[in-house]
Amino acid sequence: MTAEVTLEVVSPGAYASVQDAGRRGYRRYGVPVAGVLDARGMRLANALAGNEPGTPVIEALDGGLHLAARGGPVRVAVAGPAELEHAVAGERRVLDAWRSLTLADGDSLRVRRLLHGRLVVVAVEGLAVPPVLGSASTYPRAALGGLDGRALAPGARLPVPAATARRELTLPKPLRADTRPIRVVPGPQADHFAPETRAAFAEAGYQVTAEADRMGVRLQGPVLAHQGAPEIVSDAIVPGAIQVPGNGQPIVLLADAQTAGGYPKIGTVIGADLARVAGARPGETLRFAWVTAEQGEQLARAAEAQTQALLATLHPLLPGGVDEAALYGGNLVSGVVHALSTEYRPA
């Protein structure tokens, strides 16, 4: 009998869960979209692993995720600003992220640390998780999706097919931290705040507090005073909405946010920037900038074009992890030294 191949979660780190593009069409029943916080990271990781773009992935917050292959080879791919540790028969080597890697039976991979931010996405070749309401995304508050509707726990095992025989892939130029202001479209209740308050929101920095998870990010900074009552009749919430409760401190809502709420929303973070908010670490300062809805649409198209360009740059790694494109793209002839002379002779 052939042993079942699985990927074991030795440790989930701070928090890890199975996510995909999200659960659409059920918000009117009170079911949040959920889904991965970094959609671009999911697409890049899946492409590196050889998966279709919407294949479920493992999303981890704050590092520490530790995975191991059991019963056979498993291909994984990591997208995010991470430093990795690959363990083979007791020997460990440090690797950069933005690449795929085949773990032989017994090998393990650990996210040692994040170089910036707090989000990392791990794709697993062939990962298939039964959908619930059309999605594999984990929403623990209602026990939907993922593995038994819960975040990943130590010892959890994901059944996967054995890795296919192919060369590993890499992204040649890892993404750098984006330090530009977070772009925000006004409203839908921008009129609950005076013009000078809206201006101050974009002029001041807001610090990410420790109250930051997949549901939302509480910020701390200058008070955003309401014009009139600090509550409204509950209306729809979408990921990116910036609620301002009575204390005047904004909350940016994310994938697991409730579907309706009764606090005025001063603005909505554009989709192209939402992953940056979700990935901000507690103590980090965020700055905001107002844009129109039309500008938000243009920025969304530009972000999609950039994602497509990044996907087009993926290329194979040579055995041993050598970047083939960098090797052949370099000038390997210049600076050659003649075999019969110690004199330097430019080529």
TrEMBL record:
Carboxyltransferase domain span: 28-306
One Pfam family named in its UniProt record: CT_A_B
Transport keyword on record: no
InterPro entries the record matches: CT_A_B, Cyclophilin-like_dom_sf, PxpC
Keywords: ATP-binding, Hydrolase, Nucleotide-binding, Transferase
Single Gene Ontology MF annotation: transferase activity
Domain of life of the source: Bacteria
SUPFAM superfamilies: Cyclophilin-like (SSF50891)
SMART domains: AHS2 (SM00797)
NCBIfam families: urea_amlyse_rel (TIGR00724)
Protein name: Biotin-dependent carboxyltransferase family protein
Annotated source species: Rubrivivax albus
